[in-house]
Structure formats: C-alpha cells, structure tokens
Amino acid sequence: MTVAYDNQNIFARILRGELPCTKVYEDDDILAFMDIMPRADGHTLVIPKMPARTLIDIQPETLSKLILATQKIAKAVKIAMRADGITVHQFNESAGGQVVPHIHFHVIPRFEDVELKGHTGKMADAAILAELAERIKAVV
Ligand code: 5GP
Q1: Residue in 18, 23, 34, 35 to alter for ligand 1 test, most ligand atoms within 8 A of Cβ
Q2: CA triplet 127, 25, 35: central angle to 5 degrees?
Q3: Is the pLDDT of residue 2 over 80?
Q4: How far apart are the first and last CA of the chain?
Q5: Average pLDDT, the chain
Q6: Which of 83, 119, 124, 135 is most buried when burial is the number of CB atoms within 10 A of its CB?
Q7: Which residues pair with 105 in a beta bridge?
C-alpha cells in the first residue's frame, strides 16, 4: 500500500520557508542544511525539493540528483571538518528509524576512535550551527 506524502512534515515546511534552517547548499532540486540535533559537529542533511517519503517511493531521477548532491556535500563536510571519514545514514519508515517522512541523507563527519553521539534530542546552539555551515559552504 502506498502511503501519501504528508505536506505538513518538518522538512516540507522548511522547503516552503515556513520554518527556518541553517542552509549549507541549495540548487533547483536539492537543499542541504545542518541537523538541529547533530550526532557530530558538521552533521548535515541532504533532501530533494520534490516531495518523496522514502527510498522506496522516490522517483529514480530525483534519487539520482539526491545521491549526487549527497556525494558533493560529503566531500565538502569531510574537507571543512577535517574529518577522517564520513558516515552516511538513510532511514525508511518508522520501523526503519525514520522520524521525518521526507527522504533525507545524513552526512556525518567521523574521527578515528570517536564514537557517534546518540540521539540526545538536544538542540545545538544556533550560533555554532551557523559557524559550521559557513565552514562547509566555503568548500562546497
Ligand atoms: P531521521 O528521520 O532520519 O530519523 O532523522 C531526522 C533528523 O532530522 C534527525 O537527525 C533530527 O535531528 C533532524 N531534525 C528534526 N527536526 C528538525 C528541524 O526542525 N530542523 C533541522 N535542521 N533538523 C531537524
């Protein structure tokens, strides 16, 4: 059964400009912005502007643009954060760990011997997110 796209999900509202975000990159098809509850400094989300819930129901053409943008952001985050590696997460449906029902890739900088932080539910300081976004924007 196909589940309808929820126009009121948080990322749809960010795309419509109804909620703020700390933007890192934007083009006609893609928006990338800082995760508000980061699992590491520099944790960035990459989303398509076209509505799609999951990897299962996204149009292939939109998915192609999304994965290429994710690569672009991963390169920029790795350079900007001087990271040793990058973890990319993508969750589908609540059973698969998805909280926001608009498809997104998590781009998370990683460092040797540093564990990923858990989902603390703690919002990051807005000024710190803005500073990190500037660093990433400078190399994207
Ligand atoms: P997922 O759906 O893949 O489990 O994760 C959703 C992600 O979106 C979480 O990492 C969460 O911190 C992030 N998030 C939730 N609400 C907002 C928001 O309003 N703004 C931003 N920038 N990130 C959000």
Answers
A1: 35
A2: 50
A3: no
A4: 39
A5: 96
A6: 83
A7: 46
Asked if pLDDT for residue 95 goes beyond 80, the answer is: yes
Instruction: HSE, CB side, 13 Å, CA atoms: give it for residue 19.
Output: 11
Q: Where are the chain's structural domains?
A: 10-112+119-137
pTM of the model: 0.97
- From residue 24, alpha-carbon distances to 14, 30, 49, 75, 106 in Å are 13, 11, 14, 13, 13
Higher pLDDT: 121 or 47? It is: 47
Q: Is 21 in the pocket of ligand 1 (CB under 6 A)?
A: yes
Compute the distance from residue 79 Cα to the ligand 1 centre, in Å.
23
Please tell me the predicted confidence (pLDDT) of residue 126: 97
Query: 10-112+119-137: which CATH topology?
Result: HIT family, subunit A (3.30.428)
